[in-house]
Specification:
Elements (H helix, E strand, L loop, with lengths): L6 E4 L12 H6 L3 E4 L2 H7 L1 H16 L8 E6 L5 H12 L6 E6 L3
Length: 107
């Protein structure tokens, strides 16, 4: 349940699941739903983008960010196609608790 007069912002759509709000939340709780696309925002707000990056760097310097678990798949000329396909399937199948990363290397 969302609090009265709150704003629900959806940022990531990798899970491909709909955002669900009831009519009563929209009407009686005055809940507002918004989508946020960072590429569009940063193109429209170049000065704010630079300010945001400085703020993020300062937070990193203070140690206020936690590590994100990752799953690395190395991609070379010798990497089997099945291994790459499996990594992509994991990435599009929904939330796994880890960020999938391809590291491309020369052999």
């Amino acid at each position: 349940m969302y609090r009265k007069n709150s704003h629900v912002v959806t940022y990531g759509a990798m899970a491909k699941k709909p955002v669900t709000l009831s009519a009563s939340q929209l009407i009686f709780q005055n809940v507002h739903a918004h989508g946020f696309w960072i590429s569009s925002w940063s193109d429209a707000n170049p000065e704010q983008k630079i300010e945001m990056l400085h703020d993020l760097l300062n937070l990193m310097r203070k140690g206020e960010f936690k590590d994100t678990p990752v799953e690395v798949t190395e991609w070379t000329d010798e990497t089997e196609l099945g291994k790459l396909v499996e990594a992509v399937k994991k990435g599009i199948s929904g939330f796994s608790g880890k960020k999938g990363i391809f590291v491309m290397k020369d052999t």
